[in-house]
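Sequence in, structure out. Go.
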Amino acid sequence: MTPYGIVYKDTVPAFNEGAQIWSERSGFINKKYFITAMLLSSLSVIAVNCIILYFRTDKESYLPATFFLTVMEIISVYFLLKSALRKNVKNVFDKASSKSFKQALLRENDIEFSTPYSKSNYFYEEIEMIIEGVNSVNIIIEKGNLPVCISKSGIIKGEAEKFILILKEKMKEKYIYENKLGGKRL
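Output:
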């Protein structure tokens, strides 16, 4: 096989998609953790509301006021936790992005990633999985670590279709295509 490479740069849509795919696949936002956090915050909200409203309101309006405030605060806490977790994932990816050009080179037995400052090789057997989204190709080398996020629209040299085709041939069942944009199936 003749080596085939691409030169690319990072783009925001690809990194946002890569962050979403990584957080779903890696378990960074653990559902058990999220549910536990919601239950604890809900219980504390209910306790605080009960104490404050018990001394501040008439006895007839105590239960309706407590219920209304509790529901509103629990909904607010849910959206606050969800947005904070998403923002943290995007911040992790933003720190990994760079303005310089990067290169990915597919060879017979391995793939080489290089930047102006570093170079690394991985055999195809070492790669955990590859997830192709609408805007990006995410190469997960080790579960739990950040993937190599290649932007389809940020390719400067080479063809994305040819690169993806060769990658599919090499990775076979480890190659996954997710037809998602912004978390919604197309």
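Check: Residues 62-96 form the longest helix (35 residues). The chain has a mean pLDDT of 81.
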